Amino acid sequence: MTAPLVTTLYGKLLGAEEEGVKVWRGIPFAAPPVGKLRFRAPQPPQPWDSVREALSFSPVSHQPVSTSSTRFGGTSPDYSEDCLYLNVWSPAEAGESLPVMVWIHGGTFVTGSGSQPMFDGTRMARNGKVVLVTINYRLGPFGFVHMSPFSSEFASNAGLLDQIAALKWVQGNISAFGGDPQRVTVFGESAGSMSIAALLAMPAAQGLFAGAIMESGAGQTLQPEQGQEIAAALLAELGLTPGSDLEVLDNLPAEQILEAAARMTYKLSGEALSMFFQPVIEPMTVPADPAEAIAGGSAQGIPLLIGTNLHEGNLFFREERPGESFEQSLKALEMLMGIDDLAELAVDYPKSWEGQAELLTDLFFWGSSIAFAETQSAAAPVWMYRFDWTVQGHPLLEKAVHGAEILYVFGNLHLLKQYGLTVTPDMQKLSETMQKTWTAFAHRGDPSIPGLEWPPYRADSRATVIFDGETQVVLDPDAEKRRRLFSAQANWPKVFSEKTGE
């Protein structure tokens, strides 16, 4: 068997063939963002002359060391600022130019990597006849601290700029891997989905992808004043001020910056849910809130597949996990969403950990996704889903928690053994259905497949595919809750009040 060799704009890459798929790992799409490139916009990678082996994953972006046995498959990856690499899976017997799916991982903008085992692209590329790409991007203080107000040399939203650099690399190079640069679909979950919302609003991302799939996350940004306050708090933890000679930041140990970020986060939020590192409204990168930008037509003509899981919040609030009181949690959610007062809406929820989980699910995930779907439906076709699948009696997956759909989308069900589960025929059937609809969307811009005619989402019908034991189309699921959710519109951001009536 001959190892796959491709020629990119930067040099030749030698990959491997595994399980009917050609794979190239650890491909640089930008220069290492270290030293003078720390806190700056990504720069192109340096070309190479000899054949470069692309057989191993790269280091992952600096982040808190994972204590989970599942995130990196029980192994400890290398953590480094030199992390701007991507991975490509392509069917061994393609025979034609294939659609491309670019995965943007989640992790609240502070954790994760494109090399996590759950994102292995082998099955999705082979079964769906797509070229699949997973990427890294800078996280936490390295990728999402609002530095541009302090110097014209610094960039804000560096992590989003990394994603754009990866998409530009795809445009220039993916044809060598069998992919069609005119048929690129971005898809992501949680912070990856929120990243896609931001990309839909960013002028620099226009033309880099033709479709979008957003799983469990809509537009989420900080106002510039908030971002600047957080950046100043981080500098204070480092013994600096905005007026200091900030060139010293180029040479500080990365660990020192991470430790300062952890101290700052704890001082500002304690144990409450918070996202201090996330996209920020900033004229050079994200000039408007994503909800407002798409309402203004920034994503004109880009079809969207969007949805959530039935029990998103139950990943974060569980009976055995100590947490904040209901009132403290409500304040944290108000801060997270930029809403002044949720007290009126919260009356309908029990003052317990279950109530906190349900409120987070309904407002932060489900409600914001409905609003995003309705807004984009004026500019392009939109399809909506909900993932309801649960495993009876399982301590975690007896609820359809945040992130539970990912293994089914990628077809990596063998990893369920990490949760003490054996794959059943019903699980396999569900996974095949989800993977077929996702890849159908990449091929045709429509997720309908034989046996599942999936109508677009419109305000007069609200057709939603429910993925469960029996996958089916439901019109306006939980209609009464939806109406109640939007009844207190006066205090909600603009996107929640524009098109969410009857």
From TrEMBL:
Ranges where the Carboxylesterase type B domain occurs: 3-465
EC number: 3.1.1.-
One Pfam family from the record: COesterase
Superkingdom of the source species: Bacteria
Enzyme's top EC category: hydrolase
Matching Gene3D superfamilies: alpha/beta hydrolase
Keywords annotated in UniProt: Hydrolase
Keyword Cell inner membrane recorded: no
InterPro entries noted in UniProt: AB_hydrolase_fold, CarbesteraseB, Carboxylesterase_B_AS, Carboxylesterase_B_CS, Cholinesterase, Type-B_Carboxylest/Lipase
Family: Belongs to the type-B carboxylesterase/lipase family.
Entry protein name: Carboxylic ester hydrolase
Organism of origin: Paenibacillus helianthi
